[in-house]
Amino acid sequence: MECSYYNGYAEKKMYFVLRKPYTNTKTRMQHLFISAMVMLLLSLPCQALQAQSFPFTFGVEKTLDDSGPGKGIAWVDVNTSDSTWTVTDEGLSSTGLPIGVIRSVEQYENFILQVDWCHLEAGGNSGIFIWCDAVPEAESRLPSGVEVQMLELDWVNQNKVNGQEPPIAYVHGELFGAGKTQTTPDNPRGIRSKSIENRCLGVGQWNSYTVVCVDGTVKLSVNGKFVNGVRLSSQRKGYLCLEAEGAKIKFRNFKLTQLPPSVLNPDHAVRPL
Fold first, then answer.
1. Is residue 63 within a helix (H) or strand (E), and if so which, with residue range?
2. Residue 40's domain spans which residues?
3. Is the pTM of this model over 0.90?
4. How would residue 169 be classed by pLDDT, with cut points 50, 70 and 90?
5. Where are the alpha helices (DSSP H) in 25-162?
6. Is 273 within a domain?
7. Is 5 exposed, middle or buried (0-12, 13-18, 19+ CB in 10 A)?
8. pLDDT tens-digit profile of 23-64?
9. Nearest to 149 by CA among 176, 185, 183, 186
């Protein structure tokens, strides 16, 4: 028996080998027992192979003058596990645990990123790190970079401080420098930048982000309208990281269009891993 997975679907294959008739009753009984066990195993789901091994490919990368289908984006684990992520025909799913990130194999500088995302739990937390060093901090388990926040709407209700709900801007596409990364917000909420219009949809509904990243500036469109931005990022070339932060989430339609490079100060590029 061979159990394999292609894009998340199980395919069971059974091979039968013709043998000469058994002349020994004991031997015949042994083989009948083995055959029965094989049939039992075939009836069970192949849970052990549902985990996503690394590296894996998710999303498409192209250039502005590329009229072809583009190439797949390869991802490797940083500090999650091979049971955290699953690639299917529908896209990429995350269990959210353990908290951590995966990173792109390649680094990126100037680009346009398009992605759809859908939280499967009320109050779910996730995000994408832009120009990321992919080196997680010990306490948070998350790296430095520009974070494009993806929060489910009920997050503010579940994370009250002294009985007060956090600002609703938390859950509509905040941008900020995470870890050691520094940015200047377009629409300040402290050091973070809040969206000027609340456009995210709740649990079980798909949201669409377009993220334009050029020379230290990030602009975010939420469901068809640009509503947020940061500038003067201290990191302007690095890895992409997808975040698992405790809740189930799905991603699909992940498309990256590379733009021409800038005259880059070496201090603005993260160290290759």
1. strand 56-63
2. 2-47
3. no
4. confident
5. 25-42, 155-158
6. no
7. middle
8. 555 555 565 555 555 454 444 444 333 457 899 999 999 999
9. 176
Same domain, 18 and 150: no
**Span 220-241, average pLDDT:** 98
Quick one: pLDDT band at residue 17, thresholds 50, 70, 90? very low
Number of H helices, E strands in the chain: 2, 19
Closest C-alpha among 113, 117, 217, 122 to residue 175: 217
Q: Label each residue of 174-235 as H, E or C.
A: CEEEECCCCCEECCEECCEECCCCCCCCCCCCCEEEEEEEECCEEEEEECCEEEEEEECCCC
- pLDDT of res. 47: 37
Confidence at residue 53, expressed as pLDDT on a 0 to 100 scale: 81
H-helix or E-strand spanning residue 74: strand 71-77
> For 269, which DSSP code?
B
CA distance 215 to 18: 67
For residue 114, give the CATH number of its domain: 2.60.120.560
Q: Which amino acid is at 221?
A: S
- Of 214, 237, 219, the C-alpha closest to 229 is 219
The count of residues in the chain is 273
Nearest Cα to Cα of residue 60 among 50, 73, 49: 73
Q: How far apart are CA 126 and CA 101, in angstroms?
A: 10
- 99-119 tens-digit pLDDT: 999 999 999 999 999 999 999
Number of domains in the chain: 2
Token pair of 199, please?
A: 């456009």
Do 97 and 205 lie in one domain? The reply is: yes
